[in-house]
Amino acid sequence: xxxxxxxxxxxxxxxxxxTPIQILPLSALDSQLFLRFTIEYLLVYKPYxxxxxxxxxxxxxxxxxxxxxxxxxxxxxxxRPNGSGLEVVCRAQGAAFLQAVSDLTASEFQAAPRHKTxxxxxxxxxxxxxxxxxxxxxxxxxxxxxxxxxxxxxxxxCLCDGIGSAEFLNLVAELATGKQKLTxxxxxxxxxxxxxxxxxxKYKSSTSHHPEFKKVPDLCGFISRFNQERFAPTSVIxxxxxxxxxxxxxxxxxxxxxxxxxxxxxxWKSWATALNLPPNQTLKLLFTINIRNKVKxxxxxxxxxxxxxxxCAQTSAKDLVEKGLGYATGLVKRAKERVNxxxxxxxxxxxxxxGTSPDSVGVLIMSQxxxxxxxxxxxxxxxxxxxxxxxxxxYCILLPVxxxxxxxxxxxxxxxxxxxxxxxLLKSIGT
Length: 431
Prior knowledge:
InterPro entries: CAT-like_dom_sf, Plant_acyltransferase
Keywords: Acyltransferase, Transferase
Number of helices: 9
CATH topology of the largest domain: Chloramphenicol Acetyltransferase
Family: Belongs to the plant acyltransferase family.
Strand order of the largest sheet: 1-6-7-8-3-13
Low-confidence stretches: none
Radius of gyration: 22 Å
Protein name: Alcohol acyltransferase 9-like
Largest sheet: 6 strands, mixed
GO molecular function: acyltransferase activity, transferring groups other than amino-acyl groups
Strand content: 15-25%
CATH class of the largest domain: Alpha Beta
Shape: globular
CATH architecture of the largest domain: 2-Layer Sandwich
Order of helices and strands: EEEHEEEEEHHEHHEEHHHEEEEH
CATH superfamily of the largest domain: Chloramphenicol acetyltransferase-like domain
């Protein structure tokens, strides 16, 4: 049963100053088919002695001011008339702002939701098709029954990636609390989407070494299972000690690894084992890799477009399940190391010319939100005590943990038939 949420206000917030009226092309990376959805963040706050009306006014005012340098977020995304990609029509149409009340309390967000859409109405304006003229930015401030609040924010993924959206949110927060003035921006937003287009490159590229785009046989009804089965949200915290225990397990099998490499390998291995897939089913772990400093020249500071590609670790279910954690960690490590300037050029060329999209058979997608800076977004109610997605889906998201800089929360929905085994394996260090 979904919790009650009542929307009290819904308005469009336009830039507080005049902004350019123009049509801006989005890049080949922005225009990818698999990015035509909304990134949805949910931040939970526990303020004390707060003037709610003043807070709402501060957030709305800060949003209007932030939309001046980030004016494309007040535009509307559409397909280019020639069908070659996407563009944004900038006429200061505005972002949506909603204010609501709910019977939820802050403590309910510490664990996973009871079902994956339990918190759906905390972002009541759900954009099903990002190209149908909806605002590319939706913000909802919901007051909870215990005096706490949630801030849910939806960004059209075609316009920005996680890094870009978090930079925008932190600007809104700094404007709302008076820590920053528009006349003195620490980092100016940069459009420059042409930098991620094939015409910026000098040669044609090959995609022969890009397993993320290659289809693999579905030997177990993977797609139908993931479309039809009931899913159970899960949420497990790993502190520094547990991550270091995982690293110790890999030392005899692989070279020194990062926390992300070993943790993502452990999650992938636990997930695959719990799903009980055929030994010869090909499995992939897809994860986002920031390319801002991997391309030559580097993307400029303040670039808020999609500045990432997907790393892809691939193996058989048998090898992933039966070989040690060091094996899976090595696959993730090598997938990261493959991403260089040439790799990015190949992806840009491929998605631009053929509309190539990642396959979903045997795939677990992982996204790292724990390093975006979402845990710093203070809109005048202190830092958020919880950071997560609005809906807990089958994408695995790594999240920051309040006041524990070295901890990470693992958030993913798993088929209900496999959830107990998955949680047992995930919490078992040494298997």
